[in-house]
Design brief:
This protein is an alpha+beta fold and 513 residues long. The protein has a domain of 102 residues: Anticodon-binding domain (Rossmann fold). It has a seven-stranded mixed β-sheet with strand order 3-9-10-16-13-12-11. Helix 2 crosses helix 13, helix 5 runs antiparallel to helix 7 and helix 5 packs across helix 8.
Length: 513
């Protein structure tokens, strides 16, 4: 219940402080569609930029492109999306509600994981500093039993989905006595597959219009441009092509706020490699991507790898980086060894050669592909939910603070005149005028300064700069740090360097080295 309450608080806080709004809210909204508000748009942009700098700017052999949402319909035939891009759905006959069958089973396993966490917390309290978590997880009989049950269930689910044995998926749900979360009913229909692509039309009239799809992923735009980029960029294997952009999926069971939406944004990189080298590159990108996540300081315990039991027919390795959201560990990023499936499929359906001539080997071959794919909206939710804290202070009061990584914070500093007179607002405006060339900063003069501090804490602003009467005498101001609430007296001319030290991308990304 505590996690459920925390998630409700995340959703409420996101609206109250201008991060995420329900789309078309004045018309009662649209299910699983959201708008990013003034602070949300900045946070989302900063996450995107942080990924782009790490992926493209810091790698000589990776370039970025921006492909169209509309693609020739044969693209999706070649990629397999027309025939196989679907979710296993199940209906409850009593509640008339529809669910993803695999998610019902995963949620059941998540409840068992919660039992493991409770055992760990009890043991931590009992043994204190002497507690060895890894040893406890591997030797405690009850915990080992829980984990074995999870592994057995997920393995069976993966095998059933891979074989498209939907009858066994239903049988598994019935054997586990999984009930409708709303009504408790166990009266289920058979499991059926449902295609997730949105269809649309292109043309001047209904008679001549071409059937199109809104892209369900950004990867295919990279694959069809493989040769264009390779030749014009004079790229040598191994090299990567990165892209961020919107994708669309007709999620029937969209839920959990911005975690699963119908319109979302991906950050993907396809790394083209020599056949036979995929294992080492898979391990390389697993390690590199985890370093990127950890560079933001969001605690190692919030992340884990989850290797796929069920591999796509074209893949020879796949893992997810999972994050501990308020509703449990869920997929944040996927790392997949896709072999040469994608380029060979597009070769076959287009009739065009998509091969690479290797001058060192004096031979042509179809490159293998190593993919990293992260949901920008999910990363937003991970950052936001992890940052939202309630802290009890020494005087017994509670402050709500959004401890966003400073490099990602929408607003880097708020400049506050102590009072709205005596020339203090004018100096504050001058500071804003100087800092805004380098940082996103705001002016705030409403309410007592303590209340303004609390407001900026809750909005996630790393620094508050207060202009007071002493400023008139010695050109110094008070700078307050959000996370520690520490206050320093500094010269106005030093502000830029102090802020830059904390928010500069270099300061954060160097942690990956």
């Amino acid at each position: 219940m505590a996690n459920e309450d925390q998630f409700k608080k995340v959703i409420s806080h996101a609206k109250e402080y201008g991060y995420v709004f329900q789309s078309s809210e004045i018309y009662d909204g649209l299910s699983a569609v959201y708008d990013y508000a003034q602070n949300g748009a900045e946070l989302k942009k900063n996450i995107r930029d942080y990924w782009w700098k790490a992926m493209v700017q810091m790698n000589e052999n990776i370039v970025g492109i921006d492909t169209a949402i509309f693609m020739h319909p044969t693209t999706w035939k070649a990629s397999g999306h027309v025939d196989a891009f679907s979710d296993p759905l199940i209906d409850n006959k009593d509640s008339k509600k529809r669910y993803r069958a695999d998610v019902l089973v995963e949620d059941y396993c998540a409840k068992i994981e919660n039992k493991i966490e409770k055992e760990v917390k009890k043991a931590t309290k009992r043994f204190g500093d002497a507690f060895n978590k890894e040893e406890f997880l591997s030797t405690n009989g009850r915990v080992v039993g829980y984990q074995e049950k999870i592994n057995t269930i997920l393995k069976r689910l993966g095998q059933s989905l891979e074989k498209e044995d939907l009858a066994d998926v239903k049988a598994l749900i019935e054997e586990l006595e999984i009930a409708d979360p709303l009504t408790g009913s166990r009266n289920w229909t058979d499991v059926k597959q449902f295609n997730l692509m949105f269809g649309t039309k292109l043309g001047a009239s209904a008679e001549s219009a071409m059937d199109l799809y809104l892209r369900p992923e950004t990867a295919q735009g990279i694959f069809v441009n493989f040769l264009n980029v390779q030749k014009t960029g004079r790229m040598k294997i191994p090299f990567g092509i990165a892209q961020t952009g919107k994708a669309f999926r007709n999620e029937i069971v969209a839920r959990q706020f911005i975690f699963r939406m119908r319109e979302f944004e991906q950050m993907e990189m396809q790394f083209f490699i020599k056949p036979g080298t995929q294992k080492e590159w898979f391990e390389h990108w697993k390690a590199t991507r985890m370093k990127w996540h950890l560079s933001l300081g969001m605690e190692n315990d919030n992340y884990r790898f989850h290797d796929h039991e069920k591999l796509a027919h074209y893949a020879d390795a796949a893992t997810d980086i999972e994050f501990k959201f308020p509703f449990g560990f869920k997929e944040l990023e996927g790392i997949h060894s896709r072999t040469d499936f994608d380029l060979k499929q597009h070769e076959e359906f287009s009739g065009k050669k998509l091969q690479y001539f290797d001058h060192e080997d004096n031979a042509s071959y179809t490159p293998y592909v190593l993919e990293t794919s992260i949901g920008l909206d999910r990363m937003f939710l991970a950052v936001f939910s992890n940052a939202l804290k309630d802290e009890t202070l020494e005087d017994g009061s509670v402050r709500t603070v959004l401890k966003l990584p400073a490099v990602l914070a929408p607003t880097k500093a708020a400049v506050l005149p102590l009072v709205k007179k005596d020339g203090l607002p004018e100096i504050a405006r001058q500071i804003i005028g100087d800092l805004k060339w380098d940082f996103n900063v705001i002016y705030d003069e409403k309410d007592a300064v303590g209340r303004r501090y609390r407001r900026q804490d809750a909005a996630g602003t790393p620094f508050c700069i207060t202009v007071d009467h002493k400023t008139l005498e010695d050109n110094t101001v008070t700078i307050r740090h959000r996370d520690t609430m520490e206050q320093q007296r500094v010269k106005i001319e030093d502000l830029k360097d102090i802020i830059k030290k904390e928010v500069d991308v270099k300061h954060w990304l160097q942690k990956m080295e």
